[in-house]
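Mods, move this if it's the wrong board.
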Amino acid sequence: MKRFISFLLSIILLLSMSITSFATDKTIVKENENIAVSKTVITEEEQKQLESLPVEIKAKAAVLMEVSSGKVLMEYNPDTKLFPASVTKIMTMLLVAEAINSKKIPLADKVTCSANAATKGGSQIWLEEGESMTVDELLRATAIGSANDAATLLGEYVAGGETAFIDMMNNRAKELRMKNTHFENATGLDDTTDTHLTTARDIGIMSCELLKHDFIRDYTTVWMDSLRDGKTELVNTNKLVRFYSGTTGLKTGTTAKAGCCVSASAERDGLHLVAVVMGSDNSNDRFNTAKSMLNWGFSNYSCVTPKISKKYFKNAEVIGGKENFVKPEMPSILPVIVKKGEEDKIEIKVKIEECLEAPVVEKQTIGNVKIMIDGKTVSEHKITAKNAVEKLGFAGYMKKLANFVATGEKEYPETTEKH
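Not the wrong board. Structure tokens:
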């Protein structure tokens, strides 16, 4: 019996040594969600707002937004300035995505780590000065593991330096009309700043912009990944990526100042929503709030793309031109967000100028399409000239006049146009 117990203890010891050895070979990179945060204090006015909302909001601020239009479907303190923590990296990823799409930087580019990037604290992949990684690897580290060193290095590579990248972030925020946002770094670290602030609405705006880049989902929807031949393991803190149907991302963030934050996006039946939650007391509250908002949005709204008959797109007459008519070009109609059951309330109004004066340039606005619901315009699209029409000279004018006198017909009758 003693021999058996001794043998059993030996086996247990060997297993424990193996497990310890295996564990030391891998580094797990994951955003810390166990930080002690300041508790939310709610005023009487805020309590009234919360009670009027269709779902329970456990946060300092929240917004539910439709991605393609930016339409706000639900809001609570949407313009209150708060610390965003690592949700900041949505802007970092947006600028990187735009640089990739514009061919400024390829995903395969190798980037050498600077001394500055290597010193960043918080969530990190422990980049060493002089170490090289591809843009793809750094983007994975940023989107999945929320690595501050990787995010900083990407910013330096895109802009040439950290300060230049921060300027890019703030300039892009202005272009997107993020009116209450100021960035001081690419990471969201706020231990040395009181002015790195944004709002739930502004986070929604930059989230919608990032989601225009379809390839970013290859990063933001990944639950687990690895770098350095499997030695560095990346784990996504966004639990909705794993458990919520239709998830497209996007980013979590937690600091003592910010509390627990998330910008959570999902798409179902063509309806793409983003729920922004800022300043929750704990991680479960942020995810439950985001999930409740998304569920409510999918239950109450639908996405409809109005169909417009080509018969409404008749040629516009041109006076004094080498041609008598200009062809209208049908615009791309964006989807419209409507409450479920109200799809038949969508109205379409098409207006094209009946008569234009030459010259007409290609892409010149010659009319518009209005999409209306209950008499209110929800979207408007320009109708443009498909072709240019040059101004007729004196000789050409006399020739057309003579032809009209002889035949009584215009040279380019509208009835010959095929749609």
